[in-house]
């Protein structure tokens, strides 16, 4: 009889911890690669607690437990996780180590899985526990796995070749670049643990993680340009083996730890953000020197080459037509009643499928009606599914994975009949003004995303409101929809990437928002490309953004009186581009709907 309730699962875990003589255990949303999105086998936090977000952790002690999430999930965690079982803690305000120290028994032994946490996290929590005579203990096997009776197996999907025609650069060229970096730093090898970095470096893709085309694997890249790929042998086809060539040695994934143990005397780079604590420990135990260095694939992967840039434009054009077909359909069907968050998400998926080029969605569609739109990372299911009501706000954040690009777009629309209330139009227009401010930004090289973030928030701040997520994240090329190192967000607070200088060739989202808990939410998101800007008389190099996403923005939500002449010009120019890109792909009523939505203000 499988455990059906989260209380039963929590009790079973506590019994397992008691058997192992542990006073507590930390359960993150993570896998051995520190991925944001993880395979079903690694969804330990969701199984234990019911939390469906993409970032968070739980701490389970003998008599108390807590959920730690950031501001994106403040509402969601309360909807999904039982307050009778877990306290709610918000990071970065609430520190996990301090919470454990304050709530655990005297001299506690707190377990953690060293394959699911960074070394920095382990060092920080260890220091907090040491102050109260406690100890952080690396477990041999994960105790959640011991009580999760129907835990899925890791995916057995085949890995695939990602053709150079889409990658724009061969794997040999990329490995040579890494090798040159290793030699310049006096290093012998680099451990590549991030799944998207492995995929980028070797020009391979996979289907092991929902919505993310990666294969479960590790790479050790060597200073002579060779590499060892650790992957389940059954994932490797003859075609893939031929693609990898003689310079890449394919080894079983379960040999990775023993390969680390054989690196005595070598200086090995490990990224402290994507390399888990267990990798550092294995290298140190082997007598190797583990050097904390940023993943050498991270920045080159983020700076897209011309082939990737053009591929993304092509992907956005077809994706924009699919989203526009959906919004036209929604404008007709939703006011009639009978449509729900789930039916709308399914319809949007169908329109993307009709392109004939969709490989997968890039994340679970956020199809959010009314009060659910106030949950930034809401994910609809059968239990939460709301009807899309007339006279309400509907927010849809979605994207597709295509061989030539990864898309991500949010549109917020008013479901008629009638006009949106004045407050809704005011908030929508302030979000729009922030979106336009980012789109029009011009800035000197070496400007970090954190320096631009206030551009998007200023108009909301003037009304005494704000939003609790970043303004923009990096985006991959047929890879992860959230890609580092660049982002646009407030600095500090543990926000990785906010101090990363923006460079020409980087993709980012532009997505300010506003959320009124229990009532409605607004977000407008396009993807942009950082590009050089030529300015007469400029002293130094300057950059700006090319907008890549072209879908009409709901003009019924706009209070035109709040827009400046420059903002109206941006709106009109943007929608002229929408018309140019979409109309050749559309016909009939959809074409007429786009033409109407693109009329100048």
From TrEMBL:
SUPFAM superfamilies from the UniProt entry: Creatinase/aminopeptidase (SSF55920), Creatinase/prolidase N-terminal domain (SSF53092)
Ranges for domain Creatinase N-terminal: 9-140
Q: Which residues form the Peptidase M24 domain?
A: 312-531
Task: Please provide, in alphabetical order, the Gene Ontology terms of the cellular component aspect for this entry.
Answer: cytoplasm
Q: Which residues are in the Peptidase M24 C-terminal domain?
A: 541-601
Sorted keywords for this record are: Hydrolase, Metal-binding
**Protein origin, superkingdom:** Bacteria
Q: Which InterPro entries match?
A: Creatin/AminoP/Spt16_N (IPR029149), Creatinase/aminopeptidase-like (IPR036005), Creatinase_N (IPR000587), Pept_M24 (IPR000994), Pept_M24B (IPR033740), Peptidase_M24_C (IPR032416), X-Pro_aminopeptidase_P (IPR050422)
One GO term in the molecular function aspect is: metalloaminopeptidase activity
Which family does the similarity line name? Belongs to the peptidase M24B family.
Name of the protein this chain belongs to: M24 family metallopeptidase
Please name the source species: Allopontixanthobacter confluentis
């Amino acid at each position: 009889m499988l455990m059906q309730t989260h209380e039963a699962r929590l009790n079973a875990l506590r019994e397992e911890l008691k058997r192992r003589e542990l006073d507590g255990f930390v359960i993150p949303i993570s896998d051995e690669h520190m991925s944001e999105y993880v395979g079903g086998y690694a969804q330990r936090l969701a199984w234990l607690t019911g939390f469906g977000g993409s970032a968070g952790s739980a701490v389970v002690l003998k008599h108390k437990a807590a959920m730690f999430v950031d501001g994106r999930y403040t509402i969601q965690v309360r909807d999904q996780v039982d307050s009778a079982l877990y306290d709610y803690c918000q990071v970065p305000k609430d520190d996990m180590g301090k919470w454990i120290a304050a709530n655990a028994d005297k001299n506690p032994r707190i377990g953690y899985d060293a394959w699911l946490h960074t070394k920095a996290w382990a060092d920080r929590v260890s220091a907090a526990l040491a102050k109260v005579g406690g100890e952080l203990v690396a477990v041999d096997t994960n105790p959640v796995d011991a009580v999760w009776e129907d835990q899925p197996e890791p995916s057995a999907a085949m890995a695939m070749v990602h053709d150079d025609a889409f990658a724009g650069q061969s794997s040999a060229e990329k490995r040579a670049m890494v090798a040159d970096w290793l030699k310049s730093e006096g290093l012998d090898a680099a451990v590549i643990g991030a799944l998207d970095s492995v995929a980028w470096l070797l020009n391979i893709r996979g289907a092991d993680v929902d919505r993310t085309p990666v294969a479960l694997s590790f790479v050790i890249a060597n200073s002579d340009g060779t590499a060892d790929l650790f992957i389940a042998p059954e994932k490797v086809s003859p075609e893939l083996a031929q693609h990898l060539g003689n310079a890449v040695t394919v080894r079983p994934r379960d040999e990775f730890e023993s390969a680390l143990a054989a690196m005595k005397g070598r200086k090995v780079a490990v990224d402290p953000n994507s390399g888990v604590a267990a990798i550092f420990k294995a290298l140190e135990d082997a007598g190797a020197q583990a050097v904390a260095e940023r993943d050498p694939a991270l920045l080159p992967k983020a700076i897209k080459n011309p082939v990737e840039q053009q591929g993304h434009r092509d992907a956005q054009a077809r994706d924009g037509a699919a989203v526009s077909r959906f919004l036209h359909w929604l404008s007709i069907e939703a006011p009639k009643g009978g449509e729900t968050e789930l039916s709308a998400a399914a319809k949007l998926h169908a329109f993307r499928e009709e392109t004939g080029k969709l490989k997968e969605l890039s994340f679970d569609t956020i199809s959010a009606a009314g009060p659910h739109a106030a949950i930034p990372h809401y994910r609809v299911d059968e239990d939460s599914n709301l009807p899309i009501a007339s006279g309400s706000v509907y927010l849809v954040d979605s994207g597709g994975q295509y061989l030539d690009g990864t898309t991500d777009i949010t549109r917020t629309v008013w479901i008629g009949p009638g006009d949106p209330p004045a407050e809704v139009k005011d908030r929508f227009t302030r979000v729009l003004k922030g979106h336009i401010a980012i789109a029009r930004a011009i800035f000197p090289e070496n400007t970090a995303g954190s320096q631009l973030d206030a551009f998007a928030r200023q108009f909301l701040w003037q009304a005494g409101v704000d939003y609790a997520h970043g303004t923009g994240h990096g985006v991959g090329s047929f890879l992860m929809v959230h890609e580092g190192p660049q982002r646009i967000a407030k600095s500090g607070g543990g926000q990785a990437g906010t101090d990363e200088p923006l460079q020409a060739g980087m993709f980012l989202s532009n997505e300010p928002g506003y959320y009124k808990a229990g009532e409605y939410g607004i977000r407008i998101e396009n993807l942009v490309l950082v590009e050089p800007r030529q300015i007469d008389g400029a002293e130094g190099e300057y950059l700006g953004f090319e907008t890549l996403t072209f879908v009409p923005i709901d003009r019924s939500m706009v209070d035109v009186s709040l827009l400046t002449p420059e903002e109206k010009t941006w709106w009109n120019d943007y929608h002229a581009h929408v018309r140019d890109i979409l109309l050749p792909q559309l016909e009939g009523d959809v074409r007429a709907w786009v033409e109407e939505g693109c009329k100048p203000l």
